[in-house]
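Two quick folds needed for the group meeting slides. Do the first one here.
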Amino acid sequence: MTEDKRRGGGDEVEDGGPGLIYMPFVIMEELLDKLRLLDYEKDFSKKMNLKPVNRHYFAVQTNPGEQFYMFTSLAAWLLNKAGRPFDQPQEYDDPNATISSLLDEVRKYGHAIDFPPSKLKQGWGEHCIYILDRLADEALKSTNFTWGRPHYPEEEMDEENIVEDDSELTLNEIEKSMAIGSSDVEDVDEDEPLMDLEGMKKLNMNKQTFESSKPEEILESTTDAADWKLEVERVMPQLKVTIRTDNKDWRVHLEQMHQHHEGIKTSLDESKVHLDKLQDEISRTLEKISSREKYINSQLEHHLVDFRQAQDALAETKEKYRQASGGVTERSRMLAEITEELEKIKQEMDERGSSMTDGAPLVKVKQAIQLLKKENTQMDIRAGVVEHILLQAKLKDKTLQNKQVHSSGGGNEGFVI
């Protein structure tokens, strides 16, 4: 079909004629007829509390969000109508998931999808119309709908009531009489016209006889003029031919065409003068506007220079602000980390302070200190006793050495203190 040819990638340009761009409008009108056959206004629009779509709803962009919701809702209703259970999409649903589910259902019917799913997210266009048209066909098949033969309305021709006198002849009657008269000479086979040689011979013989019988002198009529007029008046009604007027014949409207042509020519001459004046006024106005524009540009040139400089300064300031904002963000992050650590330290200090206010640990500490002092005193005493014993041992040792020295050498030379 034509819509199958137009689907697909937008990179392929097909030579389908200038009317191919209007094909979505035609298919949309056919889709609307199919929806009406499925009674969508009662079963869909009223139940969903939605307005019925017009004949160019999905062919022209109006409101993409509303059109996408209408497209998905209508596609879901058509799937349910075709016997495929499909949940009615909601406004907060993921559009990608909804489109993917719809395309899967369409592929199950055997229809080829050779365009990206993103084409359906806009909610309008030939691809949306193609999907809905295919689903409408499947819904009609599911409901066992059959197309009947077309009924063409009978065209009533407006014919003029012509009162025919018995003495008048119509053009049709003349043609019938001529056809009856010539039927004696014609053959049975009407498809191949034959030449009547016998008739031509008789005609030639009559012509030769007429030429040979021409009088040498001018003939004079012996008919009475009054009798001739009476005969003419008698046969005049029978010679009158009435031709039926046909509104489709261009000769009937020829005079009217000439009148319209003259009227258009007269109106064109009158309007051409006004249009020429209007063109001159527009040209002068455009020249004034152009000169005024040049004057304004010359007057505002230095202001424009200042404005450009201000724009450059603004851009530099924005860049500096962006860099400073980046530093502030980093410092804010560090401040948050330090604040978090400070909160942890405060929590630990509170826990330790609460434990220090308890008296039991303090009493134990004091007892331990007293015990340590007592042990230190005992250790000092033991150390003093050991030092005293050691001193006595040294004195005894020195005394023995002195005695040995005196006994061996004598005198004071060997005295050792």
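Then this one, please, same format:
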Amino acid sequence: MVKGKRLRKSTDKPTLGDVAKAAGVSTATVSRALNQPHQVKEPLRLRIEEQINKLGYVRDGAARALASNKKRMIGAVIPTIDNAIFASGINALERRLYEEGYTLMLAVSNYDPMHELKQVRDIMEQGVDGLLLVGNEHASETYSILEKHNQNFANLWVLDRESPYPSVGFDNFRAAQQITQYLINQGHRRFGFISGITEGNDRATARLNGALSVLEEQGIALHSQDIVECRYDIWEGRNACRHLLSRKKSSRPSAIICGNDVLAFGCLTECRELGVSVPEEVSITGFDDLPLCEHLTPSLTTIHVPSQMMGERAAEFILDKIAGRESPSHIEVPTQLVVRESTAQAPN
């Protein structure tokens, strides 16, 4: 995986012959593996695919389409469509692109970097004018293929001014610091953290590390048993919450920070099931500010992420790149702490 490190750029685009030579097969075999993969034995097909990924090869017909730059099509690969925060941002992105006469082509990676790589290559073979990804952490082959073909692209939902790759988003680390500091100011000293799975997800990692940095600065320990990593799912949030609250009352967390609102929904539900009062016994926070947050009982304290603005800014950035207009390499979308009923002063 590569995070914000520019790869050595090659001006020579790989050819079908390069792939064949690297794989030790004929060009006809490579062509068959691409166009009729069921006719090629799996070990050989996988060997050819490995060289395609390594070299960053895109089929000739697609390369001509890329060069013509007249498809008026933008590609986007997102991790999931289960999370409403992505749906809202993509909806705003599509609407803004449509206003300018562009069509959006969407794919879902399910947080799998190699699946994302295949989708990026497949989308580029359609001759898209621009490509949008989520996060800063992608397979090295993904960055390689983008650079070799001079593809206009940006990373979304992340802001990394140190990265050589353009980004449109926010500082997940700093936002997590803000919500953690708020809870400390409320007198909390015993914390639990329910995180999304950090492997392959730089946003989840940044949120966890942001919280840990503030706690460490304040001399507050967060041990391994206080951190649960799980999928962004309500039932996963419930199970994680039950684990954190299973110890005796005097040692369990008085505040639980959740990596997103979906996990917080699960946590609130489990507290109700266990008879644990929120926020009197435990404060709970989320991240994203989904529309449901303000209608829950209690309503959820969270970090507001302006997902519609994210989609609009992303569209404007990629349109500027296509048109050759000057624009900043990193565009910040501001987040905001929204305090509601699910948090309060720490219990005595």
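Slide caption for protein two: The chain has a mean pLDDT of 91.
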